[in-house]
Structures are given as C-alpha cells and as structure tokens.
Write a structure and sequence with these properties.
191 residues, 6-stranded antiparallel beta sheet, disordered N terminus, alpha+beta
Length: 191
C-alpha cells in the first residue's frame, strides 16, 4: 500500500511538472525578431570593449536572450555546415551538463523572415514534426535559443538554435505544443 501511494505521489508530481513546463517555456521566449536577437548579441559584445576580429567566437551567456520569432517555413533542409556544427559543440561544451546538447542538432532548415534567409539548426526531435504540421510558405513561430555566433571577415554569423515551434497565432503566453526534449541550462557564465 505504501509503495502504491508513493508511486501515485510521484506520478502526480510528474504530471504537475509537465503541465507547468509549457507556460514556463513560453514565458522564457518573448516575441523578438532575428534582428532583435542579433542586436542583443552586438550589445553584449560592445560591452566587452574589445574590437571583434575574424575568427572570434561569442557565446551568449544568457538563456533568457532567446525569443519567439515568426518566420516562413520553406521546407528546405541540409546537414549543418562544419563551422556551425563546431560552434554548437563549443557552445554546448561551455555549459555544465550540456555535453549531449550538440547531438540534438544535425540538420538546419531554411526560414525566411524580414526579407532575409536564415539557415537555422533545429533539434531532430522537433524537425520530425515539420512534415506533419507545416507546409512550405506557411508562417511558423520558432522558439530559438540565441547561442551567439562567430565572426567572419566582415560580419558576424549568428547561431539561433530552434528548440520548438508552434503556430504563430497561438495566444500570447500560451505554451507551445511540446515536441522536443527538456532544454538544458545555458552556458557557464563564471569560472
């Protein structure tokens, strides 16, 4: 009897946690454009008072700098290019407990927003739902983690990691339909 009561309590706690996780996820992703996300990174880089040079890496230390960005789904995908994959591995390695995080990203998908093309890495568990729920040209709300970026010869190449997606008309504050794994904490900010 005691074991069944304990099991019932554990199941109730797990159910409550899963119901609360959706709204918490949505709250952590305010509506932001990709330009807004890049501006957040540029502001953090400027605060470092160091002139960026080609080859520099910047890891955004705040898991709160992600956003819910609306874009148009194109249906096109490709394997993540080697530079971006190396960045994701380094980003994941910078956080305690994130060693497996980079393995979630194997492909990037083309989205269009604000007249620009964005090749965005998408978690494999999440992208499996694209064919079922999205059609090319359809708007989609992307829940992205602003990981930072790497500096090319002339400009930054920003890395926005898609951790979830939903209909862009979902009411503000409503949780997305959960498709992906639990999101690990962001990178370490102190040594």
């Amino acid at each position: 009897m005691e074991t069944s009561v304990r099991l019932a309590n554990i199941l109730c706690a797990a159910l409550a946690a899963s119901l609360l996780a959706g709204p918490v996820l949505a709250e952590g992703f305010p509506a932001r454009s990709f330009d807004d996300l890049a501006a957040l990174d540029l502001r953090l880089i400027q605060e470092q008072k160091k002139k960026p040079e080609a080859g520099d890496l910047f890891f955004n230390p705040s898991p709160d700098d992600g956003g819910r960005a609306v874009a148009s789904y194109t249906g096109q995908s490709r394997p993540i290019d080697l530079r971006k994959q190396a960045f994701i591995i380094a980003f994941a390695s910078s956080g305690a407990g994130n060693e497996d995080y980079s393995r979630l990203y194997q492909r990037e998908y083309l989205f269009k927003a604000g007249g620009k093309d964005y090749w965005l890495p998408v978690q494999g568990q999440v992208s499996r739902y694209f064919a079922q729920e999205l059609k090319p040209g359809q708007p989609v709300a992307l829940y992205v983690r602003n990981a930072g970026g790497f500096r090319g010869a002339q400009a930054w190449d920003w890395v926005f990691l898609v951790e979830e997606f939903d209909n862009p008309n979902t009411p503000k504050g409503a949780p997305p339909a959960k498709k992906g794994p639990v999101i690990p904490p962001g990178p370490k900010t102190a040594v």
